[in-house]
Structure formats: structure tokens, C-alpha cells
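Q: May I have one protein plus its fold?
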Amino acid sequence: MRALIQRVSSASVGVATAPGEPFEETGRIGRGLVALIGVTHEDGPAHAERLADRIRTLRVFPDEDKAMNRSCADTGAAVLVVSQFTLYGDTRKGRRPSFVAAAPPAHAEPLIDLLVGRLTAAGTEVATGRFRAHMQVSLVNDGPVTLSVEV
């Protein structure tokens, strides 16, 4: 599994219920992390659990000395989780990305749900988008801090 993580001062995600319809907000957080999550064919429950733990304990929030030594677990920061199959897009050939490395929805959705459940069970406030929906994510990147995490 792969995650692109951004530390944010606020973020939200909205979903369009039909083409041309306005976006309905499905998730909003204040200070925290936006985690765009990609799943590939070989990923399983252990990957989802490990990635959830990495996200929750990633030390990217400043301590009293302004060093990045605090995590969501330390600060109570929230996480906005958005499924993102395009993280497994291959752009090495041609002009159109290939997404053959991305897991199909039937494989990926339960793993995203497991990741969200693991974060929630650990006491992290979690907001989400909607799997297989057209979404718009709005965020204010704080820092900016953007990291790629793979398990």
C-alpha cells in the first residue's frame, strides 16, 4: 500500500452524486493529515494495519522546540482518508498513465475500510471520502509538509 500524506491546517472532501451535480461534503477535518491511499494487487490486511499505524504515529507535528517530533497519536490530530488508485499510475511510457498496478475496487475497498477502522479503533478522528466516487479534495497544506509512505 502507498500513501501520500500532507500535514494540513484544514481539509475537506466532497462527492458528486451524479455528473454535473454539486459536490456534497462527506468529510472535514481541522488540523491533521490528509492521507491519499493507493492499493495494489499484492496488498492484504497486514499492509492496511501497518499503514494505519504508520499514519497515526508519523511524527510530523511540531513540538515546543518547533521540531517535527509529534504524531496524530500525540496531538489528537485528525486524518482525512481518501482512496486514490492513481498513486499506482505508471507514467514511464507514452502520455497516458497505466493503472494496471492498482488493485481492483473489490480488492482495494475492504483494505481502505480496514485502515479507517484501525485508525478509528486507536482513537484517531477520521473523515473519509466515498470509494469509487468522483471527489473534490480541498486542503490547506501546513508547512508545506508532504510525504510518501509505502508498506
Notes: Residues 105-121 form the longest helix (17 residues).
